[in-house]
């Protein structure tokens, strides 16, 4: 467990398939309400591009749509949270925990050092998400924004991440958002869900 001051940070995990709008909505929460946003995927891409000893493993996972071992991701998230200032913060952690290994690793390293009031599940159908990612691929420069990687990312999402969404549902801690509407309409729903925290 990490050593925390008395005031615990609040962490809201944001889950959803590739292209469901996690990053887009988190950016709006940062802009309007000053939440701190950590995208696990962005942190992993940054670590890969730094050329560290884990770079090759991270890149292989990204291209194959597989999930990076939690020891790597959790350390990046912990460092990111500390960098932002740990205490009295509201963190949106985007794209994590993605499987049981992620969930267990987070529980072990961070666990009760933070409060997780609820998670967001950005719900959208695959055809919509594929169309968004193919459009994004024109400018993103991401080496997993292509049909081959995307199919694998969807399979991982269905098989490994959805059980984590369901786990939070059973705890009464999952807030499902219809991600199919326009960006502003989706954001209005987030504002409703976050009432009391904004
Ligand atoms: N509600 C929306 N309607 C239309 N387009 C959207 C909507 N939300 C996001 N987009 C667009 O879809 C693309 C993917 O969105 P975003 O990057 O937020 O998804 P993500 O869930 O973070 O995906 P990934 O898991 O691949 O990082 C972006 O180009 C974004 O501008
Ligand atoms: O916790 C995580 C988050 C991400 N990954 C890997 O990164 C890619 C891209 O993630 P995005 O959220 O779409 O940016 C994802 O497919 C995984 O390969 C991870 O392993 N663990
Ligand atoms: Mg994203």
Automatic annotation (TrEMBL):
Give me the reactions it catalyses.
UMP + ATP = UDP + ADP; CMP + ATP = CDP + ADP; dCMP + ATP = dCDP + ADP
Q: Which CDD domains match?
A: ADK
Q: How is the cofactor bound?
A: Binds 1 Mg(2+) ion per monomer.
What residues does ATP bind to?
19-24, 136, 181
Q: What is its main location?
A: cytoplasm
Q: Where are the annotated segments for LID?
A: 135-145
Q: Where in the cell is it found?
A: Cytoplasm; Nucleus
> Which residues of this UniProt protein bind CMP?
102
The cofactors required by this protein are: Mg(2+)
Q: Name one Pfam family in it.
A: ADK
Keyword flag Ion transport: no
Cross-referenced NCBIfam families: UMP_CMP_kin_fam
- How does the record comment on the protein's domains? Consists of three domains, a large central CORE domain and two small peripheral domains, NMPbind and LID, which undergo movements during catalysis. The LID domain closes over the site of phosphoryl transfer upon ATP binding. Assembling and dissambling the active center during each catalytic cycle provides an effective means to prevent ATP hydrolysis.
- Known function: Catalyzes the phosphorylation of pyrimidine nucleoside monophosphates at the expense of ATP. Plays an important role in de novo pyrimidine nucleotide biosynthesis. Has preference for UMP and CMP as phosphate acceptors.
This chain's protein is named UMP-CMP kinase
- Which species expresses this protein natively? Halteria grandinella
């Amino acid at each position: 467990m990490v050593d925390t001051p008395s005031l615990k940070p609040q962490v809201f995990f944001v889950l959803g398939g590739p292209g469901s709008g996690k990053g887009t909505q988190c950016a709006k929460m940062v802009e309007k309400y000053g939440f701190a946003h950590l995208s696990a995927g962005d942190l992993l891409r940054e670590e890969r591009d730094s050329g560290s000893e884990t770079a090759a493993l991270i890149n292989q996972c990204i291209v194959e749509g597989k999930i990076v071992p939690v020891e790597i991701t959790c350390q990046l998230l912990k460092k990111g949270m500390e960098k932002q200032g740990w205490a009295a913060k509201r963190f949106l952690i985007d794209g994590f925990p993605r499987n049981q290994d992620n969930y267990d690793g987070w529980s072990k390293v961070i666990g009760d050092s933070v409060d997780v009031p609820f998670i967001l599940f950005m719900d959208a159908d695959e055809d919509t998400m594929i169309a968004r990612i193919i459009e994004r691929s024109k400018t993103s420069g991401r080496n997993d924004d292509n049909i081959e990687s995307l199919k694998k990312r969807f399979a991982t999402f269905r098989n490994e991440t959805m059980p984590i969404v369901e786990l939070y549902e059973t705890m009464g801690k999952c807030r499902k958002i219809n991600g199919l509407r326009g960006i502003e309409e989706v954001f209005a729903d987030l504002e409703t869900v976050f009432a009391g925290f904004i």
